Amino acid sequence: MKKLFTTLSNIWKIQELRERIVFTLVILLVYRFVSHVVLPGVDATALGDNQKSGILGLLDMFAGGSFSRVSILALGVMPYISASIVVQLLGIAVPSFQKMQKEGESGRNKLNQITRYLTVVITAVQAVGYVKTQVPKEAILIDPTLFFVLSTFVLSAGTLFVMWLGEKITDKGIGNGVSLIIMVGIIARLPMALYQEITSRVIVDGGLIALVLEIVALFAVVMFTILIVQGVRKVPVQYAKRIVGNRQFGGVRQYIPLKVNAAGVMPIIFAQALMFIPTTLTQFFPTLQNTWLIQFSDPTSLAYSLTFAFLIIAFTFFYTAITVNPVQMSDDMKKNGGFIPGLKPGLDTSSFIDDVISKITFPGSVFLAIIAILPSLAVKFGIKSEFAHFYGGTSLLILVGVVLDTLQQVESYLLMRHYDGLMKTGRVTGRTGVPAANASGSSAVI
């Protein structure tokens, strides 16, 4: 406990860090306040129980509940995330985007500008769909045509406002702004979910021991998730000696940290999108409800869990293959005078890196699939569905990843001022430890 208070005191002594933390907290409070402002022309009391499930529930989670509240920030940062993913994929397939990725700071600025423009387009399209399908007609108080035009404009402005808040946090605050906004939206659900679980276990069932076991199990799952997020395979790289004037450069051994889970949460998001297709089909074609497709309407069924796990493993390999480029890593090492001991630069090096990535991606994908289906297993054991979401899936992976990244930045400020780090031994490592040679200039937002 003394170590904790000492660390907090050291953090508060650093003026720049203190100002960044306060600025971040203020911006997040502004976001949470505005997220409760309902669209103009909507009767909030007429919304009733507007909770979402399926893919809409996932969007509602990312938006911090604004989606179901018909808030002016209902679309949240999802259009920006979608635009970022599209630009990232274009950087793999389109030569002009690849060229911009290699132009350094100027190239990144161009890509960021393209991402912003694309965000506006995606937001406008999603705003139209949201107003048409998600706003109950009985809750609209003004002329429907006027409401449609006004709401489309307000929703687009709301997403741009959230994107601006995220960029301000990144520039003047601490941590990645967009990721922190998503994390705050997820955490906002935790108090109510925990209250419901305590009420169910202690007051209704009288199962205090069961509640304690649930908390212990959640702690173990969080520790397991941290291991997956931080797990790396270090590949040694030797740099040749260079003499420039009277000084010697190079001649040292470094490491390329190849992550066990280089794909992050994207495989789970892609797999979830596909798993909602059977449910959508049964809604449009009622005759299919008596077929085998009905099994995929229940996330706790064995067929759903096995299919979901298989898709996650497949998408992990796919997403890792398109985001981690062994050939580019090999070329970058060769340009900088680096080589892997015992291997020739070029084809041998890229083949070795590709082989290592393939070997570590399989266990990483299996562990990711286990984390993804843990909420379904938690429901099977009698845990309320709201609280079960924190036992795995996108919620837990985002929370763990964002917290680690933020703590890593805080620790870097402490070490720069010659204070002790956040831990007695070792250092906090977040998700930023991507392969050093993969200087593509693009990265996933989440």
Automatic annotation (TrEMBL):
Keyword Transmembrane assigned: yes
Compartment list: Cell membrane; Membrane
TM spans (from-to): 21-39, 70-94, 114-133, 145-165, 177-195, 207-232, 260-281, 301-324, 360-383, 389-407
Chief subcellular location: membrane
Lineage of the organism: Bacteria, Pseudomonadati, Bacteroidota, Sphingobacteriia, Sphingobacteriales
Gene3D superfamilies membership: SecY subunit domain
Membrane topology qualifier: Multi-pass membrane protein
Similarity comment text for this entry: Belongs to the SecY/SEC61-alpha family.
Assembly information from the UniProt record: Component of the Sec protein translocase complex. Heterotrimer consisting of SecY, SecE and SecG subunits. The heterotrimers can form oligomers, although 1 heterotrimer is thought to be able to translocate proteins. Interacts with the ribosome. Interacts with SecDF, and other proteins may be involved. Interacts with SecA.
Presence of the UniProt keyword Lyase in the record: no
Protein's recorded name: Protein translocase subunit SecY
GO biological process: intracellular protein transmembrane transport; protein targeting; protein transport by the Sec complex
Organism whose genome encodes this protein: Pedobacter westerhofensis
Gene Ontology CC, one term: plasma membrane
Top-level taxonomic group: Bacteria
UniProt keyword annotations, A-Z: Cell membrane, Membrane, Protein transport, Translocation, Transmembrane, Transmembrane helix, Transport
Function of the molecule: The central subunit of the protein translocation channel SecYEG. Consists of two halves formed by TMs 1-5 and 6-10. These two domains form a lateral gate at the front which open onto the bilayer between TMs 2 and 7, and are clamped together by SecE at the back. The channel is closed by both a pore ring composed of hydrophobic SecY resides and a short helix (helix 2A) on the extracellular side of the membrane which forms a plug. The plug probably moves laterally to allow the channel to open. The ring and the pore may move independently.
Pfam families from the UniProt entry: SecY
